[in-house]
Amino acid sequence: MLLNQHVHFIGIGGAGLSAIAMVLHERGHVVSGSDLSESEATEKLQSVGVLVHIGHQATNILGADVVIASSAVPSTNPELVAAAASNIKVLRRQDVLGNLMKSKLGCAIAGSHGKTTTTALISFCLLENGLNPSFIVGGIVNGLDTNANYDVGEPFIVEADEYDRMFLGLSPTVSIVTSVDYDHPDCYSTFSDMEAAFREFVMLTPLEGRLIINKDDILARKLGDQAKESGIPVVTYALQNDADWKGEDIRVNSDGGCSFSLVNARKQYVANVDTRLVGKHNVMNVLAAIAAVDFYDLSIENILTSVREFRGVKRRFEIKGKSAGITVVDDYAHHPMAIQATLGAARLHFPNQKLWALFQPHTYSRTHALTSEIASSFYDADHVVITDIFASREKDDRTISAKNILELMDHSDAHYVGDSNEAARFIASKMHSGDVLITMSAGDGYKVGDHVLNMLRSRNSKRSDAIDSLFGGLGEKIKKNESMASYTSARIGGPADYFIQARSVDELSTAVQTGWQAGIPVFVFGSGSNLLVSDQGVRGLVVHNLARSVAFEQEKSKMHINVGSGMMLAPLARMCINRGAGGLEWAVSVPGTVGGAVVGNAGAHGSDISTNILLADILQRGKGTKSWTLPELGLSYRSSNLKTSEDDLVMLRAEFVLDLVDTNTLRSYASRFIQHRRQTQPPGASIGSMFKNPPGDYAGRLIEDAGLKGLRLGKAEISTVHANFFINLGGASAVDVLGLINKARHTVRKLFDVDLDLEIQLVGEWL
């Protein structure tokens, strides 16, 4: 194709053609095109100077030397008819891409699932490492804001679409098959027909190239074995089977994505891989990308750095927003296997939340061929809503409908709501705070999620006005969007929706009950130690407990102390020492408040709160205030019934009984405890002791022996003084600290087979 040729695209807004149009435009061609309606793709092309006509008419092709038409364009299209009448050459996608690839070091990514994300990740890695790749991706790459690029480097990365057998026209050096599942019944009449096309594709790989195969996929593995018999070099990846590249120990990381251990063919640990992508299916995509980028002679360190920075592709588990505690996620899933993978990823990502699945079937032929498979794909969803079929390039012949899917479903809560707007209203009326909506569609089903978010935001705005009115009785004490970083010992934390400081037990009780009456979450904290507050902040009402009243009453050889739950524990211990009351001197250097100490049964030097507490006044939602005795409090190692209860409870005050002891003796004990703290615990902004000590051992020793002492992530550090303390060096984020937590847990589990349990509390939103 000559550079001075004018190329016209019919259906230029499609994912495939819009990308090719961008590449040819960047290569220097004159490019024009047409489509039935405007879209993000057409707007993007117009913004770089491509002439785009909305609507199809013969005059659109004037001046064109070559026409490229989408597979979905019928032969009766007026532009195609005009091209034929004018003897203008009409090409297919593969004709163009195959020619472009011949002058490059091509990589073609094929498969029923995962090819878009894998293509995008390979392209991103090569781009980040200075190899100047050209690429064609079937979706907009987050962070690059494009689906295509043409550059001077050797690599040319192409998403190899099996529809219309497009991938058979390519000329790859590196080929990938991510999976082979029956799809496109309008193109492949039988599964054998489709399998044969994939077999022909893998045989395009030259002997000096590389074929990369998902060894966990039975048919992909079979294709790899056949290619290997022909002398084609084959590299494998897997989660379940032994492979050249294998992923193990998959877990959710601090970015909300997945981390896993990368293992080579000799079953040797290579590296820890961190990615922002969600779900096991995306771990497979990462493994495929690593195997491909490795061909271009990049170091594993550089590859994994790029993997960590990659932010995915639009409409692939894309978190669209959150309102009223409800999260909306959108995904392109439209095949049964993709539905299962997406919902499996959601279950991993949102383990304790209710999942709503909105599914829009895509094309009548696919729905007809895969009805039962689609119907059985929603087992990870708590609630399912099916809309009408998105026709795409097809016409309704009345032989299949979305209702047929519902008829075959064995699910406890599945609904057919055909119209998208009505589906949005139905879902918004049923969802509760903490629920997650996942829209799955290759059509316009994502609009349901957008509508739900808009309704929730509107409703939330009205509710916020009502809450503001309710809080009016608290006067100027109530603040909105108050940063929590100023109130936590780690100096970390995003904004609280509503924030108030309660300086007495009565103010504490009033504030908490007002929040309960408003129907919003209420979180009470004291000194801000032993808390890691999310960078995204805390929804609802946060009450800063400053109820610090203290009353001492001596009775013979005993001292009774009645204290507000907001009283700092260390000053209280010093006050007791000065009065000759023994039993709390161990707490003379322990941070936190009385309330937090009772809830977590704080302790040190062999003693804890349970030794001297008599009772505590507990405010319970809907039941008023009641005094709880020691058995009712249920104090145990760093825990209590207050901590484990699912009821809404707030501690207001406590009563301790201490023995009268010689003051000098108590001061001597206290001096030793203070000196011990100075020698063993680090200065600076920290949360406090991060992990509980496992039975018979110490968390700090395990972390230190794992070689993690001094490890930094961003501005957070595992202390060089005591490895069970994580320090904010100045400007650390909650995500930085959470990343160190996950690293410590994973490494200690791997090396010592010990699970570390958090002693601190994670507060706020962690999505």
Q: How would you describe what is shown here?
A:
The structure is a single chain. By secondary structure, this protein is of the alpha/beta class. It has five domains: about 5-90, NAD(P)-binding Rossmann-like Domain (Rossmann fold); about 95-240 and about 275-310, UDP-N-acetylmuramoyl-L-alanine:D-glutamate ligase (3-Layer(aba) Sandwich), CATH 3.40.1190.10; about 320-460, Protein-Tyrosine Phosphatase, Chain A; about 550-680, Uridine Diphospho-n-acetylenolpyruvylglucosamine Reductase, domain 3, CATH 3.30.465.10; about 690-765, UDP-N-acetylenolpyruvoylglucosamine reductase, C-terminal domain (Uridine Diphospho-n-acetylenolpyruvylglucosamine Reductase, domain 1, Alpha-Beta Complex), CATH 3.90.78.10. The radius of gyration is 31 Å and the shape is elongated.
In a few lines, what is going on in this structure?
The protein is α/β, with parallel strands linked by helices and 767 residues long. It has 23 helices and 39 strands. A ten-stranded mixed beta sheet has the order 8-7-9-6-10-11-12-13-14-15, with helices on both faces. It has a six-stranded mixed beta sheet with strand order 16-17-21-18-19-20, with helices on both faces. Strands 27, 28, 29, 32, 33 and 34 form a six-stranded antiparallel beta sheet that branches.
